[in-house]
Amino acid sequence: MYxxxxxxxxxxxxxxxxxxxxxxxxxxxxxIKKTAAxxxxxxxxxxxxxxxxxxxxxxxxxxxxxQEILMPMVQPAELWKESLRxxxxxxxxxxxxxxxxxxxxxxxxxxxxxCEIFRSYPISYKELPINLYQIQTKFRDEIRPRFGVMxxxxxxxxxxxxxxxxxxxxxxxxxxxxxxxxxTFDDIGLxxxxxxADAGNIGGDVSEEFHIIANSGEDLLAICDSSDFAAxxxxxxxxxxxxxxxxxxxxDGKGKLVIKRGIEVGHIFQLxxxxxxxxxxxxxxxxxxGIDVFMGCYGIGISRIVAAAIEQNHDDRGIIWPxxxxxxxxxxxxxxxxxxxxxxECESVYQILKDAGHDVLLDD
Length: 364
What we know:
9-stranded mixed beta sheet
C-alpha cells in the first residue's frame, strides 16, 4: 500500500467520551469512526487489523475440525420463545416487528438458530461430533455502551457450537475447542489467562473465560502463583472486598493468589442438554433410541480483541502491535520521492518485501 493512497483520517484530539487508551488511539489513528452510541465504522487501518484477527481465528478452528457457516442476524422470536430466553434474556435483546406484525429479534447469540438448523435434518449418531462456527455481527442493546469497541452495541464475534451423543464426547469436543482457542491466542501473541467462570444467561454446568491481562480490565481475576488455577472472582463467592484475596492461599493448595485485571475476549461452555431438551434437538443412538444431543458453545470477541491488544500493548507514543495483527509489518520511508531514482529504489524494496509475504507501507 502507498501512503498517498491510504485513507487514514487521523485526529489530534481524544474523543470527548473516551475513557480507555484503546478508544482514544483507535479514533485518533483513524481506525474507527463512531456513528451512534455503541455503533462504529471500521476504517481501512482498523479493518486490516480486524481481518487479521478473524483469519487467525478461522485458521485455528478449521485446523481443529470446525466447519464455517453463516447464520442470519435477524431471528424469528418464536425460536427464542421456544428456548424460554425471549423473556429471560433481558433488555439487551433487541425486539421488533416486521410489516406483517411478526416478532423478530436482532441476534446477540445464535444457540436457537443453530438448534433449528440441526433438528431440521435426519442426522445419524455416526456423523457426530459436529462442530459448526460463524464469524458474524452481533447486537446487544447495552444500557450504557462505552469504551469504544470494547463494550459496543454492535460487534463482530466468532461463535461455535458442538453436537455430541453423550456427556463424555461433549467434554472431548470442549477440550478440543479449548486447544483451538489456546492456539489462537498464542498465534495472536497476547498475554492471556484461562479462568473458571460463571455461565451467565447462556447457561451450562461448566464454563471458562479467556482474559487478556490489562490494568484497564473490568474483571478481577484470582490467579495462583504456583499452579494453573485461575478464576474470575465472581465464582469464588468471596463476601468481602475481592481485592483482599491477593496473597490468600489458592483453593487448590498449591500457592498463593495474585489478583490481576482482565478483559474477557473468549468464553467456552458445556451446555449439556439445556437447549436440545427445550427445542427437541435429538438423534437416534446405536440402539435406535431417541436422545437429546449434548451441546457446547464457544465465543470469541473478534472486535474486542483489537481493543484489548491495544490496552495491553501501547506506550506514550502510541500502539505497539503484536506482529501477527499489525496492519503493516514494514514502513518504507522515501526520503525524496520527487527523485525518480530514489522512488524506484524504494519501490523495488517494496515489491521484494511484498513478494516475501509482508504487509508493507510505502511512504511516498
